Amino acid sequence: GLRYDVTGLTNKLDGSAGNLWNKEKSDRWTLAFTRSLTEFSLLRLQASRARLQVDGVEENVNQIYLQYQHSLGAHGAHSF
Are 68 and 51 in contact (CB under 8 A)? Predict the structure, then answer.
């Protein structure tokens, strides 16, 4: 999967024609790969790159996540 997030949008104009960004615009791109190992488990690798602006200072942030998810217990396919 691929996702793009952005913050800093506003519906107020700051005097310039059509400017919808405030001074602290931040955005992030995220790429995720998910693999179902069985009907009860999945493995996900996710990487994000963010550009953050706070108080006029811009910072780049990189994140990597590895997630393993396993479901236990009764569900719709089994009556136990």
Answer: no
- Look up the pTM and report it: 0.64
Instruction: Choose between 71 and 44: higher pLDDT.
Output: 44
Which amino acid, residue 20? Answer: L
Tell me the average pLDDT of the chain.
Answer: 81
3-state secondary structure the chain: CEEEEEEEECCCCCCCCCCCEEEEEEEEEEEEEEEEEECCEEEEEEEEEEEEEECCEEEEEEEEEEEEEECCCCECCECC
Count other Cβ atoms within 10 Å, centred on residue 63: 11
Who's near 14: CB < 8 A, 6+ residues apart? 22
Given a cut of 90, whether residue 31 has pLDDT beyond it is yes
